[in-house]
Amino acid sequence: MNILEKRILEEGRVLPGNVLKVDSFVNHKIDPAFFMKIAEEFKSRFSDLKIDKILTVEVSGIAIAFAVGLLMDKEIIFAKKSVSKTLGDDVYKSSVYSYTKGVTYDIMVSKNYLKKGDKVLVIDDFLANGKALEGIYDILEQAGAQVEATGILIEKGFQNGGNRLREKGYKIESLATIKSLENGKVEFENSLDF
Ligand code: 5GP
Q1: 115: CA distance to ligand 1 center in Å?
Q2: Which of 6, 24, 47, 76 has minimal CB crowding within 10 Å?
């Protein structure tokens, strides 16, 4: 069992609809030292890749991506979910259906920050049905950038987004993969120690 799985078992709560609540260390409160250890694991898994930059989505992906970016010495871009006056119109945009919120929203990245040929490492907190990642990959395709790999904190393996995207050829590494949340009990698969 790895440090992330241990923490999920200790602090995670299973909500109705197969949603895992990890607010106490991912989505609402953050333990920086813990995220640095997580980032070390991502760094070792991606050490053979040549990447130019890291892309994540606001809000929860930012802290994880920051830790990885610090260790790998790469800049981080986060896709925005809301339009602001500062963002302007010159953006790559994609629509994403949110499983947890039951709504569709746009994610946007300024055309200033992604260039054709950029080699990008994608980082995010959860992978469930894969809609958020599809939106990110769509934006990278619009920019002519290349997805080198994707690092996910928690994959809900039973929702199959990860397997569908791996079959399309994406390299996706998840640090904890959940096999089942049935009866409020968290079960993992493909557990790797770190
Ligand atoms: P997907 O698009 O792959 O279905 O879901 C990914 C996004 O949905 C993540 O960015 C995350 O915000 C959210 N998400 C999906 N399932 C869960 C869950 O069980 N718990 C939490 N906290 N977020 C989830």
Answers
A1: 28
A2: 47
